[in-house]
């Protein structure tokens, strides 16, 4: 079978690329090695983790904040089986949604492992042992990523687990040791801390979510500490041993002392690696560079004409919306259009409570670049809306060019930060100054008033409510 566009991998990069290619009139096929579409994000990533974050947040509120609102209930109990089943139901609904979109756009779905035969032919090896070869004028590689594993951390998927198993536990751990206090650690650590587990974070860097603006990490640490978590920062894990009923993590601290932490489960979340296993890239004339597929910055085309790559398998942030943007970008490039992605304005969100959301440059990046900047901050505790809801933890921090006042970065920790960041993305896309945003009317009472106030603070320190 001959196609205009073949997409390998059905995550947010792949399925979105396929839809856009089909919309543009291409005969399109998508190959997925699993029996369900949606990739990491839908099946073992963004969606199931958010479902569990929401369920655990409800439990936490029922146990700890309802009484304050004058809602009296007897102590809530966790039915972990139901919580996990609900999560699986959410995923299933969305799997069905993607199947519908494939049909609607007349995209042919092949379930099986895709591997290159040559630069325009892909073999699909199916679960029933049969295989089929298809050819494409254009091929988009969207094979995503898998958790990073280290030789001295023997992931056994029962007690020493990755995020995939953490989304399907049959019990709430008594003591969960989380190796890596990055995005997955913060989110899934929060889930189990809210459900009553003792959570210990062992982190190589000196703070949580160390790649984000330092103020965010500091504030998030305080918030998660309130759930009873403890931290081992500047600790490098050197070994993990499953003792049967419990697991011991050994780490070295900054004084080079050995520290041991024992829990009943260990969650390993130390990053993810691009995934190209089984693709047989060599047959297409492709290689990887430190695991990633190299692409041309202007076209996302590999060194082989007609073969493109997008999402987690190439450079850049490993985020679903970044993969989606690249999927649309490549489909439009193939159609001869001249699309554009502003990588500086891909927001990053951590779905803890309070949420953390960032776009643009961090203060540390501006300092390192020697850029003259000014800051404006506004705390949630000074907001009417936050006081009414009881969500007073957090702040908005705006970084603006010292001379021109152009907004260079916005970092928010607080209730609904994930949605609030969209305003900052729009403002920065249109190269707004802090004063531009400060002069726009923001509904009262809303969390977004903190954005306006932080912009007022950045322009001549004229926030009204602090
Ligand atoms: P993937 O989603 O990884 O999809 C790749 C697909 O390709 C997979 O289905 C795989 O089976 C298939 N495949 C691989 N090789 C082959 C082959 N040879 N033949 C056929 N099929 C193949 N990002 C966010 O933006 N927001 C979040 O809230 C968020 N939460 C996350 C939570 C967790 C726990 C995890 C692990 C990740 C999360 N991410 C989140 C990251 C997000 O999931 C990824 O950035 C995103 O899925 C990348 O999309 P992709 O299309 O590049 O690859
Ligand atoms: P991460 O890069 O966010 O965090 C990994 C952490 O592990 C880092 O802080 C690192 O310093 C630490 N670490 C590494 N080696 C260590 C060691 N030997 N000992 C102790 N600490 C060590 O990676 P992640 O949390 O695994 O997430 C993977 C990817 O998935 C991220 O890049 C993220 O983009 C994506 N993701 C996104 C979301 C979201 O957008 N909300 C949610 C989950 C995952």
From TrEMBL:
Residues 346-454 form the Pyridine nucleotide-disulphide oxidoreductase dimerisation domain. Keywords: Disulfide bond, FAD, Flavoprotein, NAD, Oxidoreductase, Redox-active center. Its cofactor is FAD. It catalyses: N(6)-[(R)-dihydrolipoyl]-L-lysyl-[protein] + NAD(+) = N(6)-[(R)-lipoyl]-L-lysyl-[protein] + NADH + H(+). Belongs to the class-I pyridine nucleotide-disulfide oxidoreductase family. InterPro entries: Class-I_Pyr_Nuc-Dis_Oxidored (IPR050151), FAD/NAD-bd_sf (IPR036188), FAD/NAD-binding_dom (IPR023753), FAD/NAD-linked_Rdtase_dimer_sf (IPR016156), Lipoamide_DH (IPR006258), Pyr_nuc-diS_OxRdtase (IPR001100), Pyr_nucl-diS_OxRdtase_dimer (IPR004099), Pyr_OxRdtase_I_AS (IPR012999). The gene is lpdA. Its EC number is 1.8.1.4. This is Dihydrolipoyl dehydrogenase. One of its GO terms (molecular function) is dihydrolipoyl dehydrogenase (NADH) activity. NCBIfam families: lipoamide_DH (TIGR01350). Gene3D superfamilies: 3.30.390.30, FAD/NAD(P)-binding domain. It is an enzyme of class 1 (oxidoreductase). Binds 1 FAD per subunit. Residues 3-327 form the FAD/NAD(P)-binding domain. The active site is a redox-active disulfide bond. Pfam families: Pyr_redox_2, Pyr_redox_dim.
């Amino acid at each position: 079978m001959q196609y205009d566009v073949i997409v390998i991998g059905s995550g947010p990069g792949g399925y979105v690329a396929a839809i856009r290619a089909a919309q543009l009139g291409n005969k399109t096929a998508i190959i997925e090695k699993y029996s369900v579409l949606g990739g990491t994000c839908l099946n073992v990533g963004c969606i199931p983790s958010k479902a569990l974050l929401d369920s655990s947040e409800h439990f936490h509120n029922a146990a700890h904040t309802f009484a304050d609102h004058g809602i009296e209930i007897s102590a809530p109990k966790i039915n972990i089986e139901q919580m996990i089943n609900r999560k699986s139901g959410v995923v299933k609904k969305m799997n069905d949604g993607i199947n519908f979109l494939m049909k609607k756009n007349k995209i042919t779905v092949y379930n099986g492992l895709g591997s290159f035969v040559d630069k325009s032919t892909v073999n699909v090896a199916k679960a029933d042992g049969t295989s089929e070869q298809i050819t494409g004028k254009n091929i988009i590689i969207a094979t995503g990523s898998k958790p990073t594993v280290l030789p001295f951390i023997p992931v056994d998927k029962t007690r020493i687990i990755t995020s995939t198993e953490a989304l399907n536990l049959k019990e709430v751990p008594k003591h969960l040791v989380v190796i890596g206090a990055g995005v997955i650690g913060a989110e899934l650590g929060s889930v189990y801390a809210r459900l009553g587990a003792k959570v210990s974070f062992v982190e190589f860097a000196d703070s949580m979510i160390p790649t984000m603006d330092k103020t965010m990490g500091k504030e998030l640490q305080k918030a998660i500490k309130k759930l009873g978590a403890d931290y081992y920062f500047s600790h490098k894990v050197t070994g993990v041993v499953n003792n049967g009923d419990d697991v011991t993590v050994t780490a070295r601290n900054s004084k080079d002392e050995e520290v041991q932490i024992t829990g009943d489960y260990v969650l390993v979340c130390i990053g993810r690696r691009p995934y190209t296993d089984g693709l047989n890239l060599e047959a297409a004339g492709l290689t990887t560079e430190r695991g990633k597929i190299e692409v041309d910055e202007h076209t996302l085309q590999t060194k082989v004409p007609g073969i493109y790559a997008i999402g987690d398998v190439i450079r850049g942030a490993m985020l679903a919306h970044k993969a989606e943007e690249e999927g649309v970008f490549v489909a439009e490039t193939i159609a001869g259009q001249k699309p554009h992605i502003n990588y500086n304005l891909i927001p990053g969100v951590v779905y803890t409570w309070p949420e953390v959301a960032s776009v643009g440059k961090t203060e540390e990046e501006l300092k390192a670049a020697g850029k003259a900047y000014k800051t404006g901050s506004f705390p949630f505790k000074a907001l009417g809306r936050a006081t009414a809801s009881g969500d007073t933890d957090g702040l908005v921090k705006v970084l603006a060019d010292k001379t021109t006042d152009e907004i260079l970065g916005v970092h928010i920790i607080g209730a609904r930060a994930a949605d609030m960041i969209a305003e900052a993305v729009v403002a920065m896309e249109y190269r707004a100054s802090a004063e531009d945003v400060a002069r726009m009317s923001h509904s009262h009472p809303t969390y977004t008033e903190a954005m306006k106030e932080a912009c007022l603070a950045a322009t001549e320190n004229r926030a009204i409510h602090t």
